[in-house]
Amino acid sequence: MSQYKDNLDKFNCRDNYIEGLHTNSTYITIAHYGLSKDLLRTQNWRFVTDNDTSLLSVLYRIFYEDFRSFSAHHFLCLTDREKSSKQAYQEYQEANKDLFSWGLAREIDNRSTYTIA
After folding, report:
1. Half-sphere exposure of 54 (CA within 13 A, CB side)
2. SS3 of 30, please?
3. According to the lineage, what is the superkingdom (predicted)?
4. pTM greater than 0.70
5. What is the rounded CA–CA span in Å between residue 39 and residue 93?
6. Contact 103/95 with Cβ under 8 angstroms?
7. What is the mean pLDDT of the chain?
8. Contact, 54 vs 29, CB < 8 A?
9. 10-residue block means of pLDDT along the chain (117 residues)?
10. Contact 73, 46 (CB under 8 A)
11. N or C, which end of the chain has less CB nearby within 10 Å?
12. Are the C-beta atoms of residues 78 and 92 closer than 8 Å to each other?
């Protein structure tokens, strides 16, 4: 242990070093998505995320083949902070109607916009 501490003292840049395992959020996200993919073993994937670039890069890395085969879909959810809650809700209702109309035009006979999406 004393030899270890002597060697550690040689590194001036490590004055504020905290011992232990150091990982960043990308590695943790890779582990979570990879584990989820292995455990769930589903044929279709639907993801809803914000515009977090580290999250998106991992998502497309782990589920690359699923996206290429169209068995995975990604929905990007963004918030416009300049709109009131009432305005946002009205736009949500309009988008729901548009999606439902789109589904009917393509003969997707279902009353659920979730299923149409």
Report:
1. 7
2. helix
3. Bacteria
4. no
5. 36
6. no
7. 85
8. yes
9. 77 63 81 93 91 90 94 89 91 91 84 78
10. yes
11. N
12. no
